[in-house]
Amino acid sequence: xxxxxxxxxxxxxxxxxxxxxxxxxxxxxxxxxxxxxxxxxxxxxxxxxxxxxxxxxxxxxxxxxxxxxxxxx
Length: 73
What we know:
By secondary structure, this protein is of the alpha+beta class. The protein is built from one helix and three strands.
């Protein structure tokens, strides 16, 4: 069966490393929505590093979440 996908939304999640807290590594995350479908991975990473640069903890990783609807043709 042939299928196609319809883009619904895209978000980025920025994980920050706060270092050791009580002997355990503390990592927090923050998610930002309304990322345009036309945004490239490089654009998303650049924006995430700018946002992380405004925060105190160190940037750990950037995760892109894409949601699409799969429908039959």
